[in-house]
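Entry:
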Amino acid sequence: MAEGASGPRSLRLLCLHGYRQDAGSFRARSGALRKALRGRAELLFVDAPHVVAARPGEASLLEPLDSSARGWWFSNPQEGTFSALEETSSCKGLEESLEAVAEACAEHSPIDGLLGFSQGAALAALICALKQRGDLHFQFDFAILIAGFKSRSLDHQSYYQEPIQVPSLHVLGETDRVIPAEMSQELASHFSEPLFLTHPGGHFVPASAAQKKTYLEFLDRFGK
């Protein structure tokens, strides 16, 4: 799915949804941002490959369950669940998700940047590290990470060993109870020159007039 102007300066952003969302629900929830960036950026949405089933006793600090809920990887593969707060030796599903994003990048090429929300932002950060390592599946110039966090999976810690050089804009909600701002700041600390957009709200994609200005100023760096 895509929306935006087709002019020569329209950037193409691949959008990675949060845990328990899908491409369609993320597109709907980012309508204000799509409108704010119309004529400047074309947003393309991709589904995570893993279906998330509702289970009793699942961690409470998670996004509301969509009817077609999906995830990029699971911190508890036995239960088929994920929590950003859970330290684990497992990251079941990551390889399939990397393949799905690589396929989407090829299908929609050229991709100028990644835009990730919550678990999608955490995944986008891992992909930025892979790009820095020279992975040719991921050719893009920048990342916008909204309510992102550093993965607690032990298997992912190698991604953060070197400062990530990819230009990045980190969007933090001051009252976000799902991914507290401190977790987003921790992720940003692994980027060499992170920029910040802080808003007073919670766990959503902000797109007020002032926030639109910050997005556009960031995107203007790549509008050649």
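The radius of gyration is 16 Å.
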